[in-house]
Amino acid sequence: MALVGGRPDNAVGRMRRRMERLYPLCRSLTGEGVQQTLAILAEDLPLHDGAPFIKRIASGTQVFDWTIPPRWRVGAAWIADAATGRRLIDLADHTLHLVSYSAPFRGRLSREDLEPHLHSLPDHPDWIPYRTSYYVRDWGFCLTQRQRDALGEGPFDVVVDTDFDDAGELIYGELVLPGSDPEAGEVLISSHLCHPSLANDNLSGLTVATELAGRLRQRPHRLGYRFVFAPGTIGSLTWLAQHPDVRPDHVLVLTGLGGGGELVYKRTRRGAQPIDRAAEHVVGHRQGRIVGYSPYGYDERQYNALGFDLPAGRLTRTPHGEYPEYHTSADDLAFVADAELIDSLDAIEEIFAVLEGEATYRNLSPYGEPQLGKRGLYPKVGGRSADDAVMAMLWLMACSDGETSLLAITERARLPFAILRQAADDLLAAGLLG
Ligand code: ZN
């Protein structure tokens, strides 16, 4: 078994292989690509008791202010030189070549008539942009600037073999891992899955979330964990519409977890929620960046909406729009490094450990410093400075007033949360905390 980050683990290999399999699929809001994606994720998810992972909701269903769109089927799509029949741009070469959700079209066009349907990036002449036309019925092709410059004058034969099925459905994946303490609450982890061949946005989120679910299955957890893999905006809104009685205590949106850069935690709309405090502690200790809430971004804007008022933070390391490869073919498998995936996974596990371990205690021996030594809690050899474990106990005894939480004391002590958690367990066992 390979050693990764100093421990036996093949999580990196699994996350990488999962991304490689997901990368070529032609995902969109609905359709075969989403189905295939969920099937691949399901292979590694701890599904149990035959609970259905894939949820379906019929096209045309009203979801708050939105309507579930028809299912999009995509077959072939290409531009050919009419004189020679040579295919110049072909969906079979790259899923980004077709504007996502393109309407069907078949015809012969002049260069002038084709032009409004072409999208390229003059500043990055070798990259294909990612474009969608979800809510306007149109068709289009995305291509590199070099391909565009070399198209010639035409005429061109264009085939967009797609159609929309009003009797179709939107699908999303949902996995619930119940916690051992029903009173402890629930964490919702949400990742969008509507992008085609883009690795960081959002295959990185999908593969890390899947790995997280597997790890949670292997160890006890007080909190419940619910994973939602859904198309952006309409997918999270659909989940919200179908679960009016589910009120997760913490929501974490995961996306863009590769692509270099430091971890970036985006606060909930209210701020200062438990998920904010946990994530700020972990991301801060990892030299990451904390940003305030903004009503733009990924699905955190749906969960945080006033009508739902859920505390949704977001973890990325490369926020949307802040890197040139964003929404282009340069966001490919090579753009996401293994080290970034595993570091993101570790950080999220640490955030969950804080949520799991956070508590508030009272010092039961508050009249001066209790004798730790006679309880076997103090190092036997005196004279050297106190180590972290002793400092953690002293901080806990100093500050556990029944109102100040473990995490608040951790921040004041400037020690890792895990050390405070262990110290609290020792003091609880010794009857000094309650
Ligand atoms: Zn995106």
How does this structure look, described?
This protein has twelve helices and 20 strands. Helix content is 30%, strand content 22%. It has three domains: 3-69 and 169-357, Aminopeptidase (3-Layer(aba) Sandwich), CATH 3.40.630; 73-165, Domain of unknown function DUF2172 (Glucose Oxidase, domain 1, 3-Layer(bba) Sandwich), CATH 3.50.30; 360-429, Arc Repressor Mutant, subunit A. Zinc ion (ZN) is lined by residues 195, 201, 320, 327.
In the CATH scheme, the class of the largest domain would be Alpha Beta
Q: Which of globular, elongated, flat, extended, rod-shaped describes the shape?
A: elongated
> Are there runs of 5+ residues with pLDDT below 50, and where?
1-8
Rounded mean pLDDT score: 94
Tell how many strands the DSSP assignment holds: 20
Number of domains: 3
Report the span from N to C terminus.
Answer: 43 Å
Can you give keywords for this protein?
Aminopeptidase, 4-stranded antiparallel sheet, 434 residues, Arc Repressor Mutant, subunit A, 8-stranded mixed sheet, alpha/beta, disordered N terminus, binds zinc ion, Glucose Oxidase, domain 1, 3 domains, single chain
In short:
It contains twelve helices and 20 strands. With 434 residues, it is an alpha/beta fold.
